[in-house]
Amino acid sequence: MDTERIDGTIHTDITPYSEFRNHLDQEVSIKGAIHNIRDMSDFAFVLVRTAREVIQCVYSPEFSEYRMGPEVKEQCSAKVTGKVVKSETRDGSERYELQIHNIEILSTPVDIMPVVISKKKVMADLAVNLDNRPVTLRNPSERAIFKIQEGIQRGFREYLTSQGFTEIHTPKINFAGAEGGTTVFRLDYFGKTVFLAQSPQLYKQTLVPVFERVFEIGPVFRAEKHDTSRHLNEYVSMDFEMGFIDSFTDIMNMETGVLKNIMELLKKEYAPEIEILHADIPQIDSIPAIRFKDAKALTMKKLKGITDMHDFDPSEEEFLGKWAKKEYGSDFLFVTHYPSSDRPFYTMDDPEDPEYTLSFDLIFRGVEITSGGQRIHDYNEQVAKMQRLGMNPEEFTTYLMLHKYGAPPHGGLGLGLERLTMHLLGFKNVRYASMFPRDINRVTP
User: Over 90: is that where the pLDDT of 219 sits?
Assistant: First the structure.
């Protein structure tokens, strides 16, 4: 019997574009999709889309014995071999291209593209873009959005790991909603009623006495019947929880450090995507903070028709974003001490004024992207608050084990990945910042 050992070695002769400068006037090979062909009669530009770049290749019978035929067409997967040469650019920057010596076709599309993706942007409305997502994501601008998201998650993960946090993964099928209310999806789970996770909140609190500091990047589900430009029913939440805090401001300071690291990483390692998307990456030195009741007084003075005294509507958030930019030169603003009636049952009330909580939201360019605060760690206090809110503590027996058997002062937050991306890149609709968005009308593709 013939056998083969697999040792994990990847055998390849493919040269990434970043190495072209080291192979000037040498023959190399690249693999990718034929992104666009520009026929100039006596020669042709063949643009090859690789994992991160679109590489310009040039075909001409003058420097190649290879004859390019009709089998070479857009969206073919191909291996292109040729000589690396310097190309002229209008701004004088260093750039390289490949003089084609051979094209090996690896696969061929069987139909024409439903949407043109070879332009700088996908020139289609949002619904068409999303209906054809497996195709439109191939466009370099669309792809760049999610490379930026990769960088955001990297910056979040790397910073928290450096601060002694442990990455965790918590269940998405739960016995109860973490935040109660009507925004939970109910499931029939082998004859039992269970819920899709609104948040990893109860589990990450439970793990504070285990690891002290934990974080998670994962999906959460909200059954909100909103069909707006800022709401999704499934989104990615970046959460952390930390123990032995002295104040809920420790959490705000940690988030400031996280955001600084994210923005610095993007500028350093995602410059190509920033350039493609014309992204305005903010500089963060510190983030100003204002109490909820003071912020509410500001909005009521400047805006008409304010009726909700326990939260902010979108127009108020937009105003506060502009106010922070004008007063502090900051794209970010912490709003602290939200009313107790607006915060979840696990939020600690302010001992100096129990109508308010030791909590905060973070507003970024006029939209809330984070909610966080200090949690109740005393057993009797937590049970009393549940009862005061009409909740049955017996339904939270396993969660209350955290408090019953001793928990340190702790707190944390949840940061919405898509909303952060949306406003970092200046989009008007959060669906552009979701690979495969799920809202009240869409469950495909």
Answer: yes
Any catalytic annotation for residue 231?
yes
> Is 316 among the catalytic positions?
no
Please pick, among 224, 234, 264, 269, the residue that the annotation labels catalytic.
224
Q: Is the pLDDT of residue 181 over 90?
A: no
Contact 174, 195 (CB under 8 A): yes
- Is residue 241 part of the annotated active site? The answer reads no
Is 97 designated active site? no
DSSP label at residue 325: H
Q: How many residues does the chain have?
A: 445
Taking alpha carbons only, the member of 154, 166, 254 closest to residue 203 is: 166
Q: Which of 52, 101, 154, 231 is catalytic?
A: 231
CA neighbor of 55 nearest in space, from 64, 46, 63: 46
Beta bridge partners of 189: 192
Average pLDDT over the chain reads 94
Catalytic residue among 371, 377, 410, 418: 371
Q: How many CB atoms lie within 10 A of CB 414?
A: 21
pTM of the prediction?
A: 0.94
Phi-psi map region of 305: left, alpha, beta (phi>0 left; psi -120 to 50 alpha):
left
Specify whether 230 is catalytic. Answer: yes
Annotated catalytic residue within 368, 375, 418, 431: 368
pLDDT tens-digit map of 1-42: 567 777 877 666 788 898 999 999 999 999 999 999 999 888
Question: Which of the following is catalytic: 143, 213, 230, 343?
Answer: 230
